[in-house]
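Pair request: fold both.
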Amino acid sequence: MIRPSFLYYVLILCFTACGKTESQSAEKKLITEKTNQLYSQYGISNESIYKHPLPDDLFSPELKKTLETAIHASKADIEKVKNSDHPDEKPLIFEGAIFSSLYEGYTGYTIKDITIHGKKAKAVIQFEYNMASPKIFWTDTIQLIDSDKEWKIDNIIFDSIKNSKDLKTSLTDFIQYTKQ
């Protein structure tokens, strides 16, 4: 009698584990799509951040609000300089790759690992910049949250080659600097 119930327990455990694995695999696929969306839209240049509205499905509400505040502050400074007595001065704009640790940006990236813990996830991204000799490699970590059954980017933790530790801090510092 003990053996059949043990076998039954093992079968239930296997089916439960398989369901979780399939679910995690589907979630990782969605996170991969968000990562690729971020770097295909904003990886090459910061121009697109000025020209197009930020999509609702890519960034968490908090990060989107911070990005929009920073963009607005930058656009306001561009207008202020343009209408000043010294229109040839450089306004406060986003310089360098804002979604990556290396100022120059990257020439390629690979998603190395995705871990999911409840409604939070991390995607570890290995970048390469091959326009310098030797090539430069670094790793950033995208933090995502499950917002309304959809993964959204909530922050990016930068590698030590960047002056700022993460995207939210970098944007907040930029906003504060524009107010000076």
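--- second member of the pair ---
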Amino acid sequence: MFDTTGQISIVQLAFFSVAIWPAFYCLIKHGKHGLLGWIFICLFCTIRIVGAGIIIGDESGDKPLSEGGLILSAVAIAPLVISVGGIAHESYNSLKDHRSILFGSIPHVLVHLGCMGAIALLVIGYTKFETASSTANDMKTGLDIIRVGGVILLVVWVGIAVITMVSLLYPRKLYGERQLIRGVVVGLIALLIRILYTLLGSLINSTSFNPKTGGTVAEKIVLDVLPEIVLVFALIAAGIASRNLKYERRPPIS
């Protein structure tokens, strides 16, 4: 019999095993401008599949949950933030003449640096928190590190959201870019819920938000799994709708 974590992992495995294929299709179709965004969507799906598979395997064999599966599940949110930033950046391409710095490479690089730092902190924090031999002091230190990682992700989200909102002030010439930014807006809303869940999990000492004990299936579905599914679905739908964007960018043949 699977517990809450196992049941959640089954849902994740089922969805992301399917989602990775249209995500890979978008990676191929979007070309160099969308490379980093779609690579990280594929990476996120892969992490979710591997992490869920490890947890399901442990539970079906009546083994204690391995630290690797739990840590993979915990830190996957950071690549998801990078993917949203990358796809948002792809939708800014025709706006660079308006605000070259705001819509150029510098914010894109900062998003990646912030997320990479958050990944490192989350891995360290969850390693200290999830290890079976962790002392009370180790767990406290781990939670403090997780909080810092969560705050960094929230700051990065604010940066992406501000640039996205500013970008909406300018008309996009290309149909594909308009489709992408719609997906990004939906994704940002879902991503905020997911980041706040991670951050609250390290701040609130309750059964529902505790990173180790989790909560009920319904709570985790609404606050953890559903936002990720909505986000990935919105981005993939926008990616498929804008699959010809690289051809739209080509200058007309005279």
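Observation on the second member. The chain has one domain: 4-245.
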